[in-house]
Amino acid sequence: MAELSKDLLLSDLEYAISLVLLRQGDQAYGVSIREDLARRAGRRVSLGAIYTTLDRLDKKGLVVSRAGDPTPRRGGRRKRLCGLTPAGERALAATWDAQQRLARGLEPQLSRFHQQRLPREAGDA
Amino acid sequence: MPELPRLARLAVGLGVPPAWREAILGDLEEMLEVELAAGTPARQARRAVLREALASALDVERRAKDARLAHSDSRVAAASANATGCRLAADRGDPLLTAFLIDLRFALHRLTRAPGFTAVAVLTLALGIGCVTAFWSLFDAVLLRPLPFEEPERLVQLWGENVDSPGERSNSSYLNMLDVREGTTAFDDLAVFQTVFANLVAADTSPERLPTTYISDNFFDLLGLPMTHGRDLGPDDNRVGAPPVVVSGTALWRQRYGGDPGVLGRALRVDGVARTVVGVAPEASSFPAATDLWLPVSSFTGAQNRGIHNLRVIGRLASGVDLERAREETAAAASRLREAFPRENPQLGMRLEPLHESMLGSTRPRLWLVTGASFLLLLVVCANISSLLLERADRRRREIATRAALGAGRAQLIRGFLAESAVLAALGGLGGLGVAFWARGLLLEFGPALPRAVDSRLDLRTLGFAAATTAALGLLFALIPILHAGSRDLFQGLRAASTGASGRREARWRSVMVAAQVALATMLTLGAALLVESLRHLHSVDLGFEAEGVLTAELEIPVPWFSEEWPK
Known about the structure:
The complex is a heterodimer of chains A (125) and B (568). Chain A has 125 residues and is mainly alpha-helical. Chain A is built from 5 helices and 2 strands, in the order H-H-H-E-E-H-H. In chain A, helix 1 (12-24) crosses helix 4. The radius of gyration of chain A is 17 Å and the shape is globular. Chain B is an alpha+beta fold and 568 residues long. In chain B, 57% of the residues lie in helices and 12% in strands. Chain B has 17 helices and 10 strands. Chain B has a 6-stranded mixed β-barrel with strand order 2-3-8-5-7-6. Chain B is elongated. The A-B interface holds A 29-31, 34, 46-49, 51-53, 55-56, 73-75, 77-80 and B 1, 4, 15-16, 19-20, 22-31, 33, 52, 55-60, 63-64, 67.
């Protein structure tokens, strides 16, 4: 297996946000990304953290952004819409693949841990 | 449409780079809208938006620093490594000790890069701490420490005085003391003593003149000191016609007999009289003075003559007896002696003083004075170093501002200052110990002869004092750069450093420091000059004759020389 360069693999938050970007196409922006992370993964991430990560991905050439139309809803301010570049898609795929391979064969145990976790959480809530 | 909380806008404005400000503010507005549309009460919704704004601003700040540091060049990274190193260490869960060691290492590094400043500061500190410690060890030994005897607060000294014009103290006689001992109940015991010089002739060495103290019986027992070897002198030794005995001092015993316990029973020829060694004195007995030989008082000149008052008297109060009662009883005993022996005891009065007071005499105010002067010197040293530190903090403004911009938190900067001043103080303290050692030697050699001064030593107590002084100074000196850095916005420091506009406040402080130093130093110099002047006057007193070219000599002739049996 050829060694992947450090830059190609995404950090934890970069990976999560990239997945959201993939799902939302090029309509993703701060609030929508934040909502998705909260709803699907239960992660509470601040807008600042999201934008910092987007900026970093932008500098690495994995994400592009453009200004959306201003809406009265946002007090006249424009959205910043983000989407993955081809390089970003490749990085996302590589990271996903690496994660899969690392977890290969461990699925039974992982799902067992997850099942054990659930009843307790239901009790807490 | 409700507005974003002003604080939220402020947080975003301060913490978020302009490129994303618009986007985030817009997102926050949208969030607020959504919340309100969902029916959340306005206040709650605004609070939620505010929380999000603050969290965002903080996150941006933190991640931006991380990113910048990851890409910066090594030199800049080294400069800010102190900040991140500690934070990373803390993040990794390393104990505080690691962070502290990193601080120390960088402090040493910074100090060695300014060798001139460091050398001057350390030397000055060493001088100040050393002088104060040396004087303190003297002060402690003479004034503070209790006498090295058992229950020293019950020891008193008995002086004679003129009952009609009391004031001047005088000595007593052996027989008087014995009568007082008989006639009072206030004392456990009384003893007489006097220190002179005597000749010691031993077979294998040349004759020596040694300090000798004549004592009455149970002298060491009264003081509560156990003999090193053998026994104390007892009442039988002081009887007329008793076999001549001697007790050796510990130093002499070690020097001449190598600490051999077999010294008991040997013969010593003192002032022409062969005496048997019956004991070795306790080690702690540098009272009344460092003594090599202890002899029974019955062989002292005039001891059998009640009218010759040439002995000093000490006593131990009986338990439960206070000084007042003892004074009353001795006054009564004195008047009885006056009546019974009017020729030998004309106008005899007696005075009782606690032993410690008696030993100090007039040295107490003098010692306070010189110790106070040494603290003044320390103040001068402090002012000196403070102005050095102020100037250094001023010059380093740019460096500190850069470090702050790169992520050094306030706590990290303060820790850095503390580490620097801790290193300076520690080095100064170590140097100070050397100075104290040397200064103490000088003081003992050339200073006034203070009672118990020789007992002073650089022991744990004195070292503790030096350590405490060093620590206090270290903390004090840390405050200077801390206050200096805190007194302005560090980010503005970068701009101000180039224009030099903010130097006014520092300049004023420096003037204050310099003025304080000049004032204190002048005071000390004047005091020293006055002392030297009075010393000079003493020497130039008119003696009434031409002293130039005239020598004086002392010839100590042992008393038995005059008796019939002395071989001529």
